[in-house]
UniProtKB/TrEMBL annotation:
Species, as recorded: Virgisporangium ochraceum
GO molecular function: ATP binding; ATP hydrolysis activity; dipeptidyl-peptidase activity
Lineage: Bacteria, Bacillati, Actinomycetota, Actinomycetes, Micromonosporales
Annotated protein name in UniProt: ABC transporter ATP-binding protein
Record has Nucleotide-binding as a keyword: yes
Gene3D superfamilies, alphabetized: alpha/beta hydrolase, Galactose-binding domain-like, P-loop containing nucleotide triphosphate hydrolases
Domain ABC transporter: 602-830
InterPro entries: AAA+_ATPase, AB_hydrolase_fold, ABC_transporter-like_ATP-bd, ABC_transporter-like_CS, Galactose-bd-like_sf, P-loop_NTPase, Xaa-Pro-like_dom, Xaa-Pro_dipept_C
Family, as annotated: Belongs to the ABC transporter superfamily.
Chain ranges passing through the membrane: 559-582
Length: 903
């Protein structure tokens, strides 16, 4: 929900009004400094005082970054105050990193402001009923404010930190930040965004992307050199000096650590009494799961209600799939519904987590399945011990830290390396486990013991766990465990083992898969020693993998999200009854079969699609696809082709009409869809997996038996060859298109629906695709193909359906449609004069074609055309019918090859 940077908003309703404010607050260590905060107040229109929500943005963002979230909350009955933190956007002041004396004190003055508003419910004089929500920078503000001010009634901090010093100076053997390894890439992005160097060209409005990395690359608005130092930009002088110091030396002073910890919940967590829902992301190299775990344990130790939820996104993974966001929305609604509204039963304090389990067969979006555990186990859950093997190995630290291994690039840029990491030969040691006999679900932080030797007595190393499956390796969570070891012997025989806690992950190992422990000397994201040196490393055989036996949880319906906030029992009952009735009707509809068309692949009758804003995408479309046919669906842009295909795939519901697939009336999710394969929305694959692995993952997501997939036949028909064993990130656009076609052909469905199947293919591949489609429409199968390449349709399809302005204007055999073309080709002695003469004669169109003309005579007798040219002194050498599908198409649509408002 809010704070998860860019969650899609629900449809707005006119249930709130919006007020823009400049709020002047007294702040600073002595409360004698003034800061002008840019704020927006969203006020529900319904009568009565409402609970309030303070909505904080991420680092580099502004109040506009969370505007959609604010609207959602206001629409559900909360008075929402979103503001731009000092030092960002149009607010004055400097960036102090959520200092208790500055940003936290600012927020306390905003609480005073809310308490004075007549729309806000009060618990006492000057005490508003209020919750705080925020992600990342805003999440830490929620925690800090709750610890500093007892007026806070509930908080939902997301993807944030416990100890800012440990976050930027981690050390995975348990060392304090003074020994930590500097996270230089993330720190540089933070400093660059605040100093104005990356965002100076962008206005506040232009730069509010709602995404933390997007904000880091320019979300702070025009730079303001409040402290007079262009090197520091909008950072306060002490924060700027701290960064410059550690970035220069790679090591923090105690002063730097103290400054970072002042802005950290670790210093105030024992004072947080507001019930806390902690949401943390598994794909987060900035603030990993361990930071959320530290917050949860510290707050729960005081007896405060705490619930922990992990999801598949984070600073590197975004918001996660829709199914993940629905689960988090549900939890947040439940939390605020009880602790702010005082309605509903007390929420459970169980632990929930999720992992990617497949691809949605209808829209190719990733699907995340949620799991629940009664008691939160933390990142150090009990588990199983697995042996790894490998001899002691020498590894070299590169001079100047270059070249360096790549693990995770900040903000999700890791897609450029396919999520699999990149290690430099000679700079890493590898130790592998045996394949697992069965499924192993790892939920938490694995641990490994290693020994190291160094001639200098010190070493900086990076330990990581790779999941190894189909010949390729992935780095779950995209994270590494940096360690700085001191007092090392020169000989490995004298080295004592140290325990390394790897980053917490959520990952399922299937039977036959294994993992590898890799120890590297370098990493692009961290600062490393510049001196070249040769280390010796060895890993003890036992690696501990934490496991959790979670119960699958259903993804909450959006209806329940509204219902929990509104807490209107009668509405809930009505919705439930309506859903049950709709499902019963849908089941009856699915079970009813039109016996007359039970053997017909596709019948479309009177299809109409009208949107809520009155736009009619499809007015009336009817056609039939029989076995053995390759039917081309043609029409100019905006004619309704794609909308018709989306209805056919169950991706949207029609306003009127019906679609029968083998006699079954089609509804979203209907079982008969298993007899249909489609490429409608364009190819979408996981880049770090091979083509074959993507096909296998897609088929698994359908829930159908593996022996029905017929992988080899589909790949042979699509002509993938050996490319199917390469990772998709190496594919050209054309190869991805062929893979998408193979995916549509899995199981050899009886009806194949393709939207622009030749997109991205070169001419030889297009010619081959003609034969693919013709071969496919054998053995009783059928193909429906939408394409703008009319010449290809003419050579490929047996039949065509021409749609124009949402209606079928022609349908039938290709030869019949082409035969109706009124176009002729004229070879003339004077093209310019002939063009002028014909233009006055009333023909529909004249187009040059080599040394002649192609003319749509528009019903004018050919003899009259020739006579007019001869009378004008133009010689006519040849007059032949021009029978092309393109000519017929242009005649049918009146030359209109584009339309506005396409959907």
């Amino acid at each position: 929900m809010v704070g998860l940077v860019g969650v899609a908003a629900w449809p707005e309703r006119a249930s709130y009004r919006v007020e823009q404010h400049r709020i002047l607050v007294q702040t600073g260590p002595n409360g004698d400094q003034q800061v002008d905060l840019d704020a927006t107040f969203y006020v529900p229109r319904s009568a009565g005082r409402k609970p309030a929500v303070l909505l904080a943005h991420g680092f580099g963002g502004t109040k506009n970054s969370v505007a959609d979230d604010a609207k959602d909350l206001a629409d559900l009955g909360y008075a929402v105050l979103a503001w731009t933190a000092q030092g960002f956007g149009r607010s004055t002041g400097e960036i102090h990193l959520n200092s208790p004396d500055w940003e936290v004190r600012d927020a306390q003055r905003l609480l005073d402001w809310l308490a004075a508003r007549p729309e806000v419910r009060l618990d006492g004089s000057g005490d508003p009923r209020v919750g705080v929500v925020g992600g990342s920078y805003g999440g830490a503000l929620a925690l800090m404010l709750a610890g500093a001010d007892s007026r806070i009634d509930a908080i939902v901090p997301m993807i944030t930190w416990n100890d800012l010093a440990r976050s930027f100076l981690p050390e995975a053997t348990g060392g304090d930040p003074s020994r930590g390894v500097f996270k230089k890439q993330w720190a540089g992005l933070f400093f660059g965004s605040g100093s104005g160097g990356l965002g100076s060209a962008l206005s506040d409005t232009e730069s509010d992307t709602g995404n933390d990395l997007g904000a880091l690359l320019g979300g702070g608005g025009p730079p303001s050199l409040a402290n007079g130092n262009p090197q520091c930009g909008r950072f306060a002088a002490d924060v700027c000096a701290a960064y410059l110091s550690v970035a220069t030396t790679g090591r923090p002073t105690q002063q730097v650590i103290d400054l970072l910890r002042r802005s950290s919940p670790v210093t105030i967590a024992d004072r947080i009494k507001a019930p806390t829902l902690l949401i943390q992301g598994a794909a987060d190299s900035l603030f990993p799961l361990s930071e959320g775990d530290a917050n949860a344990r510290a707050i729960a130790a005081t007896g405060t209600p705490v619930r922990v939820a992990w999801f598949t996104g984070g600073h590197d993974g975004g918001t996660g799939p829709r199914t993940d966001r629905d689960r988090l929305n549900f939890l947040t609604a439940q939390w605020f519904g009880h602790y702010l509204d005082g309605e509903g039963s007390k929420p459970s304090q169980s632990f929930t987590y999720s992992r990617i389990t497949g691809i949605d067969a209808t829209n190719r979006d990733l699907v995340a399945s949620g799991y629940s555990v009664t008691d939160y186990p933390g990142v150090s859950a009990p588990g199983r011990t697995v042996e790894v093997s490998g001899p002691p190995q020498p590894i070299a630290n590169p001079p100047g830290g270059t070249p360096a291994a790549v693990s995770t690039l900040p903000g999700g840029l890791s897609s450029f390396i396919g999520g699999s990491g990149l290690d430099i030969p000679g700079q890493f040691a590898r130790f592998e486990s045996r394949p697992f006999d069965g499924i192993v679900d790892v939920v938490g932080a694995p641990t490994v013991r290693l020994r190291a030797a160094s001639p200098t007595g010190e070493a900086v190393l990076f330990v990581k766990l790779y999941a190894v499956g189909d010949g390729s390796g992935s780095l779950p969570g995209g994270q590494v465990a940096p360690i700085r070891l001191t007092g090392l012997p020169a000989s490995l025989a004298d080295a004592q083992p140290v325990t390394v806690t790897l980053p917490a992950i959520v990952h399922r190992f299937e039977a036959g898969q294994r993992f590898a422990i890799v120890v590297s000397t370098s990493d692009q994201a961290y600062a490393t020693p510049a001196e070249p040196v040769l280390y010796q490393v060895a890993v003890e055989s036992a690696v501990t993998l934490p496991t959790v036996d979670g119960e699958p949880i259903r993804n909450p319906n959006v209806v329940w999200w509204y219902a929990l906030f509104a807490l209107l029992a009668l509405v809930v009952l009505g919705v439930v009854v309506a859903v049950v009735v709709a499902r019963l009707r849908a089941r009856r509809s699915v079970r009813s079969v039109d016996a007359e068309n039970a053997d017909t692949p596709l019948v479309v009758r009177g299809l109409r699609k009208e949107y809520a804003d009155g736009f009619v995408a499809v007015r009336s479309v009817s056609f039939t696809v029989h076995r053995g046919q390759v039917v081309g669906l043609l029409g100019p842009n905006g004619a309704g082709k794609t909308t018709s295909l989306r209805v056919l795939m169950g991706l949207t519901r029609p306003t009127a009409g019906e679609i029968l697939v083998f006699g079954h009336r089609l509804t979203p999710g209907a079982p008969v869809l298993s007899r249909l394969g489609a490429l409608v929305e364009g190819p979408g694959f996981l880049p770090h997996l091979t083509g074959l692995a993507n096909l296998q993952l897609f088929w698994k997501s359908t829930g159908r038996p593996g022996d029905e997939a017929r992988f080899e036949e589909a790949m042979e028909i699509a002509g993938l060859g050996t490319a199917v064993d390469r990772r998709v990130k190496t594919y050209s656009h054309g190869m991805k298109q062929r893979l998408a076609i193979a995916q549509a052909m899995l199981g050899l469905p009886e009806l194949l629906v393709l939207d622009e199947p030749t997109d991205g293919l070169d001419p030889p591949q297009i010619a081959e695709m003609r034969q693919v489609l013709k071969r496919y429409a054998t053995d009783g199968r059928a193909v429906l193909v939408s394409s703008h390449l009319l010449a290809e349709v003419e050579q490929t399809c047996t039949d065509v359906v021409v749609v124009h302005k949402g209606e079928v204007v022609a349908s039938g055999k290709v030869d019949e449609i082409v035969g109706d073309s009124p176009t002729v080709q004229l070879d003339v002695s004077d093209v310019d004069t002939a063009t002028s003469v014909l233009g006055k004669l009333g023909v529909r169109s004249v187009a040059p074609d080599g040394e002649g003309l192609v003319v749509d005579v528009n019903g004018t007798p050919r003899a009259d055309v020739v006579a007019a040219l001869v009378n004008a002194g133009v010689g006519v050498d040849r007059v032949v019918p021009r029978r092309r599908l393109e000519d017929a198409f242009l005649a049918l649509v009146g030359g209109d090859t584009k339309a506005s408002g396409e959907r």
